[in-house]
UniProtKB/TrEMBL annotation:
Name of the protein: Lysophospholipid acyltransferase family protein
InterPro entries, alphabetized: Plipid/glycerol_acylTrfase
Phospholipid/glycerol acyltransferase domain: residues covered: 72-187
Domain of life: Bacteria
Pathway: Lipid metabolism
GO molecular function, one term: acyltransferase activity
Segments crossing the lipid bilayer: 12-35, 103-121
Keywords of this entry: Acyltransferase, Membrane, Transferase, Transmembrane, Transmembrane helix
Pfam families cross-referenced by the UniProt entry: Acyltransferase
Length: 256
């Protein structure tokens, strides 16, 4: 491992643990009174700091679709460890993330996520996961929360999307909240699952208009899953094509 990669890994852990300690302390000292305001700020600070350490820049299109103070389910494609930092960096006020239950046991960071109100889902126990989703629905209605969740459930090992799971759609049925697709392009190339560290580069995030889930039922979930997955497939293809054209443009100008 090169010196730069070793420093990136070490600095990332120091930064994450440091922000975790500060965030946990602030939340505990204020008895969680300002959690709705403080938690997204703590999470955004962590995400932006981690991206800065990795020398990754981000451009966001359609951020206005996340800005309204209403219940929403923000889904995102998940192919890289970078996704956690990217989503954290754009989380607006009144947002939480749904994460796998195992993350609760990460030293310091897990406790910080708990205090920040993250939704921990047990992927190995569907009954427990549904109970956790039901509790999340009550919080969404009470606090007008936006919940970020990956319908793939885990990271893909190629550029191809994994099959979408039903969790986000059951959450939409129970809460009545619309789904806002968040499309991440470029993260996989900078930090694929097989890597410990990140290559410097640029990532684009495109937030699409909300998809109302009125009329969604357990019977119609499969059709909605295919429809949403097709949205991601076509949008990712378009964004990759745009990236390819922008990369060729300087060369074309130079030749001309």
């Amino acid at each position: 491992m090169s010196v730069r990669r070793f420093w990136q890994l070490l600095a990332s852990w120091i930064c994450g643990i440091g922000i975790g300690i500060v965030g946990s302390t602030i939340t505990l000292l204020t008895f969680g009174v300002f959690a709705r305001t403080l938690s997204p700020w703590i999470v955004r600070t962590w995400g932006k700091s981690m991206l800065r350490l990795a020398r990754v820049t981000v451009s966001v299109e359609g951020a206005e679709h996340l800005s309204s103070d209403t219940m929403k389910i923000a889904t995102f494609n998940h192919g890289s460890l970078l996704d956690s930092f990217l989503i954290a960096s754009i989380m607006p006020r009144g947002s939480v993330a749904a994460v796998k239950r195992e993350m609760f046991y990460y030293p310091i960071l897990g406790f910080t996520m708990y205090l920040c109100g993250f939704v921990f889902l047990d992927r190995r126990n569907s009954a427990r996961s549904r109970r956790q989703m039901a509790a999340a629905c009550k919080r969404m209605a009470r606090d007008r929360l936006t919940v970020f969740i990956s319908p793939e459930g885990t990271r893909a090992h190629t550029h191809e999307l994994l099959p979408f799971k039903k969790g986000a759609f059951f959450l939409a049925i129970d809460s009545g909240a619309p789904i806002v697709p968040v499309v991440i392009e470029g993260a996989f190339d900078l930090h694929p699952p097989s890597r410990w560290t990140t290559n410097p580069g640029h990532v684009r995030i495109r937030v699409l208009p909300a998809r109302p889930m009125v009329g969604l039922s357990a019977e119609t979930i499969p059709a909605e899953i295919e429809s949403l997955r097709e949205v991601y497939t076509s949008e990712l293809a378009a964004m990759r094509a745009e990236r390819g054209r922008s990369a060729l443009a300087p060369a074309a100008l130079a030749v001309g």
